[in-house]
Predict the structure.
Amino acid sequence: MRLVVYCTTAERRVLRCSGGRLRPEAAFPADENGLAAFQNHLRNRGAAVATLVIDVPGEEFHEEQIPLLRGRDREAVVERRLAQRFPDARLAVALSLGSAGAGRRKERLLLASYADARQFAPWLDVLCASRVRLAGVYSSALLLPAFAPPELRSAPFCMVASVHAQGLRVCFLEQGRLRFARFENAQAAATDQYAARAHAEISRLADYLATLRALPAQALPLIVIGQAAQRAAFERALACDARFALRFEALDAIGRRHGVREAPPELGAEQLALVRAVTRPPREQFARGNDRRGFLHWRLQRALAGAGALGFAACAAYAGVQGLEALELRDAATALRLEALEARHRYERMAAAFPATQTSAENVRLTVQELRRIAARTALPEPALAQVAGALEQCPQVTLEALRWSVGALVTADSAASSGLAQTVEITGRVMAAERSDVRAVDAEIQRFSAALQAGSGWQVVRAQPPFDMTVQGTLKGSSVAAAGSEAPRFVLVIARPLP
Amino acid sequence: MMRTLIDRRLMLTVIGAVLLCAAGAALVAASRHELADANRQLLAARAERVQAHARLAGIAQDEREMTERMDVYRKLVDLNILGAERRLEWTESIGRVGKRRQLPELRYEISPRRSLQSLSGAPGHVESFASRMKLELGLLHEGDLLGFLGDLRASGNAYYAVNQCAIARAAAPAPAAGLAPRLRAVCEIDLITLQVGDSRS
């Protein structure tokens, strides 16, 4: 709940502000009784946030220059200047007016406070003692310049006058920044009288500014914010004064433009300040650190809670997206599984039309597999014998004495190492026609037989044992005389072919 | 008092915010885990589907293979290679073939049965057994051996896996002898039978 406490010389009005709507809650006279009633009122308001807007005469403005500093150094200097200028001031503010000049590294400050700030101290104490948190204390002088048309607000100088229920607020702006302001209690029965009095007040302020040489030579833009009914009276009152270029802004229209949706009818232009103090409060305000401690803690709490909630919401949103993605993936997986199941069923239906078996398909498969495995490890001797018979036909001088066919580990000629299964044929034969002494002829015949055995069928000679030891380590014997009854030269060839 | 209360509230807010963030992080972790799990499931399902479709696409080949296997299987059944050993039939076949080939000599010795490697797969089971036969033949010429082996294979009752055969010239026969063998062959043959599932005996 946002509360606005509007402080005037005579009373303190408590209004509730929500969505641009101002609703009156209570009004208290600015005396001891009012203070007690205000205290009671706050007890029922719980942990609301309150903003004070002050419209009383007696505001003080002083311009000073400080070194161009930043951060804590600047804060310290500003605090010191405020303490020097307004000793014992609980409500004071320093408004920056920009740098003092190109060559000088100085900052211009406008120090503002109230001539009688003590009148608000008990009210602030009551607020701080209650559970209501003080968001800030503003003068309508800090809030109303924002309602001036932008093109005039950014002019070198302009003046904004607003008609309040209890008086007239006049603000003097330089480059859009508040330079001076006055609030004068003023009430009149007729609008013409009020306009004339306002003109007098504005003229007095202009004269004062002229003595300070703060006014331009040409006509000063003057924006007057008031009820539409007051337009004619103001135009009449100010038409004859060439020092001002009047521009009247009707309160209703300007209120609508700036989001004021509802306000008590007795309020004047202060309603704009009250709503702005809640919806878009300026950074500069009169309350000091201690008075705003509860609010700052509350804001920190809200920021932390907000950050936590935001973090949780972001994580939850991310997790939600991931969860949705996971759901989609699971759906896709389920669809794929169903598709696979359907394919399996189709396969089974089609497989049911396969040829009927006496046993299960698995048994048939295993049986055939086993048979093929056995067949792969065995071979028929017939092709090997046919190969030997063919070679013998090509070599008629060779006769076969013995033959041994077997299936077993392959033994290579050079390494005698086992490398897989192979058919092996060990052939023991003799070379019949050649003389034993004719070693070359015998060797040539064996070589021819060996070549015939290997011809184009994958057979290889893996071992040869000729009738003569032709190696350098062996003993080679021979004789020129043919021994009676000597046998034909005998040899052994071992051929092999790996099993497929 | 008020300040302590404010500090306590601030601390509670900090704890609450941290708890909220932790809960959010836990949610994220859980959702990431869930997503990874769903991804794994999807990959598995995709592989399952690919496999099922590949199997379906290859059904023509499966049918062809099945037909081929069935042909082999029927041949095995026809040749009595499946089932228990038929030693009686073996002796009859060997005698019958020897007589038809008019072999001058025929001796054989069949060793006890031994188990070869067995193959098992769900839900079938196949075991193979072998009985080694040592065969000695007196031959008039080498064609008798090949003919004998061919006839033996055709007689069935086992898968005849010849391990080795040695042929040598026989000693010169006496002049008075009639039909004397000129060659001697010694062979070692495995008589293999297959037993499927519960058909073992």
